[in-house]
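Below: protein 1.
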Amino acid sequence: MNIRVCPLCEADGGLLVFRNEELRIIQASEAGFPAFYRVVWNRHVAEFSELSPAEREVCMNAVVVVEQVLHAELQPTKINLAALGNMVAHLHWHVIARFDWDSHFPAPVWAAPQRPAEADRLAALAARCLQVNRRIAQTMAL
């Protein structure tokens, strides 16, 4: 029998920003992308369609909160949303602030880099994410 352990059932999956009974929001540890967040459904389900209509609304409202906070705090060029789940079949949404100067823009973060990463800009962005984290937590707690 091949039993696979789900990494998102076993651990938060990054820096925990907010958690309630239904979901958690984490700042992912993705090199070169400090403004990379995930909304992770706490209960193990693989597909968005496995949620009830009310649960889907809760989940998408959290995605919207993260997107709105990233937009307001960081003014990115674009915000990418994705729910792939090919590597980890546990429902989670990627919410990623993208900038025209980032190493992969305009390609997806999973593609080959388009240019070298700019360490100074990444460090400044990472510092700004501390306020992003606080604001996400405050907004979700309302």
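Below: protein 2.
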Amino acid sequence: MTVVDEVGVAGEFDRAMSWLRDLDPVAPRVYAVADMRHQTKRRWWALTAGESSGRFAALQARAMADRGDPAQAVLGVAADLVHCVVGRVAASFVGVGRVWDPGPENLWVHVDSDCGIDWVGVWDVVLRDTGSPAGRAGVVSLPCERSLAAWTAHRASRSLDVVTRGLSTRGPIDADAVGRIVGDSVLGASVRVPHLGAVDPEVGWRRGQLLLDAFTDIGIPVRTGSIRMT
């Protein structure tokens, strides 16, 4: 890749992240993700290493200390990780019809001093969308929004597999409950992003439903009702 290409790739990603940060200026990291090429490794860990490094276990221990109920603790951690994997990319899909790769090899997680997740990063900053000119640096164009939703759900499902497998080492985790959390995460983005004035509500809702359909098509039970955390 030439220097010009690298600048183009970074420029597309930076514009998308600027848009996501501006969604909620009070909490700019809620939806945006970091470019890992510009981050130190302090308090960052790869999603794929969450189990072997003990990071998932540490998150569960912290949640257990806060909640006291093991079942609620593991679902609380699952909700945080689902937002890392799905909630952020769903907001981008709903708002601008562009996504980064939410696959497990690409995601890194950042924790604060209390072991709480407060940011997510990616190494591959190439975006996927529909309708971009062929050969445009930093963007891969897919044929339509439905195919973009299908690609996003497939890649995110790989990361969700890592999460559920890692969190189940201390006991079984309810896959249906995780599916409902994923559904709530997508629905939350499809409602909140338009509410923030970032996209027409009908467009946001349509994109959210496409993403829910895509998760359903690969067997993740996102339409089985809401799950409420206590």
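Residues 1-7, 226-230 have pLDDT under 50 and may be disordered.
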